[in-house]
Amino acid sequence: xxxxxxxxxxxxxxxxxxxxxxxxxxxxxxxxxxxxxxxxxxxxxxxxxxxxxxxxxxxxxxxxxxxxxxxxxxxxxxxxxxxxxxxxxxxxxxxxxxxxxxxxxxxxxxxxxxxxxxxxxxxxxxxxxxxxxxxxxxxxxxxxxxxxxxxxxxxxxxxxxxxxxxxxxxxxxxxxxxxxxxxxxxxxxxxxxxxxxxxxxxxxxxxx
DNA sequence: AGCACGATTAACT
DNA sequence: GTTAATCGTGCTC
Length: 208
Description:
8-stranded antiparallel beta sheet, DNA-binding
């Protein structure tokens, strides 16, 4: 067994919704200039199959979506709204388009560097959104398609504490305004609620 | 070539 | 709660 408990390809080579749920509590690690930046994943969403009209894969295999169709355990990083990078992990067998969007982490290692990039905001808002965490960890399109199960990957996931069902909230995915049902409301968003916080934090469209 | 829109964020009323 | 910013992608002409 390796010293660190990195998630292997088998972890990602499963049903996308299950992977999204089980990623909660694991640790996202970004190696940057020999430094470790990391945080615990506390929010994730599943995008599964071409029939999922909320997924980029609804348009089929294109230059943009081809990574989703590739083998599991790779990073799918895309640019949106003219400003923001989004980090996903590719899931399921080669040829089937699946990915989990990492929506929020709790900062753990490299807090000073994260602060230098996000410090204009209060700490609790450093990495509580998919674009924010990419800015904090310097995740850009340069990492699109990389194999996060490769030993020399600058981005990977380590196993963390498992989150009990009683601490997990499920709900509709965020930001799918003009997506038809049932995809708009299907509960493929998973959120780990911190027991020290009051459950029920809200966002525009979700059950946060 | 042009258009509408987006798996968002930060700032503002 | 509302809205501007900002540009890649996919689609239509």
